[in-house]
Amino acid sequence: MTSMKTAVFASMAAVATAAAGDVYAGYRMATDCHKHANIAYDAKALKACLSDPTGPDGTVHADWETCAMDVYENGYYSCKSGENSEYDGGTGCETMRTLQGFSTSASSKFTAYTPANEVAYQFYDYWSDWAYADNWMHAATDKTGVWSDASTAAWDGVMGDAENARKQATKKGASFIVNQMYAMYDTTDRRAAQAYKCMVGDAICSNNDKTYSMVHGWDEGWAFFAGALESGTGDSGIDWGLTLAEKRDSSFDTNDATYNPNGGMSRVNAKTLAASQIGRDMLDPFDNATDAGQIVWDAWKCIEQQAFLPMIQAASSVYMYKSAACTADCGDEYGEMYTFCSAMVPILNAANPTDAGTLMDYVSPDNILSTGLPQDYATMSALIYDNLNDMGYKISDVGACTYCGDSLSDFDTSGDAAVSNKCGFAVPVGDATPSPTYSAAPTPTPDPTTDHAHADEDDESGSCDEMNTASIIVLIVGILLAVGGVAMCAMGKNKVSP
Q1: Which of 215-229, 369-383, 466-480 has the lowest mean pLDDT?
Q2: pLDDT score recorded for residue 11
Q3: CB contact at 8 A, 64 and 167
Q4: What is the mean pLDDT of residues 283-299?
Q5: What's the pLDDT at 265?
Q6: What CA–CA distance (Å, rounded) separates 327 from 109?
Q7: By three-state DSSP, how is residue 371 classified?
Q8: Helix (H, G, I), strand (E, B) or coil at 75
Q9: What is the pLDDT of residues 240-254, one digit of tens each?
Q10: What is the mean pLDDT of residues 409-430?
């Protein structure tokens, strides 16, 4: 019997109805999001501070920490309201979008919509604070918590330089702990959740204003995930979500994307791009009377599953292996290992709190010894791999770290069959690359029941009209449209890839 979680996921994305826009890493924007994508330039400036404490405005700061936090807290390139930033060829900006704001606004962002972002709540449950990412950045730059001198005294200057470890935690933390989750907010809590409500009949989202608002928010998610510097092949020069998948794919044999129009080989990025393209095309235009809400929701679940897979790869093997094998100058390795473990451990914690606690005891900077890590690589890696299925991942999708000498045959993959394949056989398509226009977004007509007039601002909900419970309609979701002979393939629960 056909699952309720069914979608046309092969080349439906080729049916593009939105006006052409900028293309970032293979994804064509239906709306203008170049200001959002410019947050990647802040990440680049923050990274530059680690070697030269001169800020983007020419201010020479006392140290790299002050420089990095200036960029993190104040922002320079991503204008939130007003004209383009002066660093983006504009004449000034009324309000800057900041990396810090991605964390400090999390309590209002992730709790505002239903259905809830499951992974976001896993992070909150683990860290017990919605501002966990901001806390991370301050600890790394202020030398507090696990980064205090007392905490790293056993190995600092013996096994490596704790300052180098803090630099890694700062730049990679900004990308994988701060930015990554916010990119998920713009695709799920704002847009996939809205589409879901329309799907089940709790809202109507078909008028033009809300169609624009929904697809614009979906575009923002990709803009934050890929960034303005990334072509798709991992060449952005910064540590970023899409870049990481390209960096790790060769070490895990996940560099086998059959087709990826952005030139990359990462299987993870190919699936994420395909799901993002399909979600975009179902939102623009959005039609309550079709299965669009179901398709958008399924596309989101694919993106959610893939988003943290590269962090698992980086944590469970490569940097853990490097740290365990390191005998001198290990600061960078320790900082990378701890950051990537922290970027995925909440998902492990939701599956097995005991193993999550044990893992972090082994990798935390305050537990590293004068002789190195307190545990060997195989033991630490097993704490993750033994729980992958319960975390919602197939071992075969994560792959084995060939760089570390592992092989997929070393692992019991029999449990993979029971893991839901959220992406089905998602295949991206080649989006045309037009000349950038950076046209202004249309001004939506004010709605008396909702405040979504500022659709360009990523802190606005753009909520759909709520329906009276008496008028709730039942949307039957099942067999979907076949477009011009397009191959159909199933995506969802109990669907297993070959």
Answers
A1: 466-480
A2: 30
A3: yes
A4: 87
A5: 95
A6: 43
A7: coil
A8: coil
A9: 999 999 999 999 999
A10: 92
Q: For the chain, give the mean pLDDT.
A: 82
Distances (CA, A) of 91 to 86, 361, 440: 5, 50, 16
User: In a 10 Å sphere around its CB, with 0-12 CB exposed, 13-18 middle and 19+ buried, how is residue 412 labelled?
Assistant: exposed
Angle subtended at Cα 181 by Cα 13 and Cα 24, rounded to the nearest 5 degrees: 40
Q: How far apart are CA 283 and CA 271, in angstroms?
A: 18
Find out whether 302 and 271 touch, Cβ atoms under 8 Å. yes
| Beta-ladder partners of 24 | 27
Mean pLDDT of all residues in 116-140: 94
Distances (CA, A) of 316 to 308, 320, 372, 395: 12, 6, 17, 12
If we measure between CA atoms, which residue out of 463, 17, 472, 15 comes closest to residue 209?
Answer: 463
Q: How far apart are CA 202 and CA 70, in angstroms?
A: 43
In angstroms, what CA-CA distances link 4 with 386, 478, 487, 492?
30, 6, 18, 8
Q: pLDDT tens for residues 39-71? A: 999 999 999 999 999 999 999 999 999 999 999
Backbone phi and psi for residue 218, each to the nearest 5 degrees, phi listed first: -65, -45
φ, ψ of residue 179 to 5 degrees: the values are: -70, -40
How sure is the predictor about 458, in pLDDT bands with cuts at 50, 70 and 90?
low
Which pair of structure tokens corresponds to residue 323? Answer: 């740290």
User: What is the reported pLDDT for 268?
Assistant: 95
Q: Which residues are bridge partners to 203 per DSSP? A: 466
Say how far apart CA 309 and CA 316 lie, in whole Å. 10
CA distance 232 to 25: 4
The DSSP code sequence of 53-112 is -B-TTS-B-SSHHHHHHHHHHH-SS-EEESSPPGGGTSS--SEE--HHHHHHTHHHHTTS
Whether the CA torsion 476, 477, 483, 486 is positive or negative: it is: negative
Amino acid at 93: C
Question: Which one-letter DSSP state was computed for residue 60?
Answer: B
Measured CA to CA, the distance from residue 75 to residue 88 in angstroms comes to 12
397 token code pair? 């999708």
438: number of Cβ within 10 Å: 12
Q: Which helix (H) or strand (E) holds 390?
A: none
CA 406 to centroid of chain Cα atoms: 27
DSSP bridge pairs for 156: 160
Structure token pair of residue 90 = 């504009």
Residue count of the chain: 498
Strands (DSSP E) found in 109-213 = 203-204
**Residue 235 has what pLDDT?**
86
Nearest one of 211, 286, 189, 221 to 444, comparing CA atoms: 211
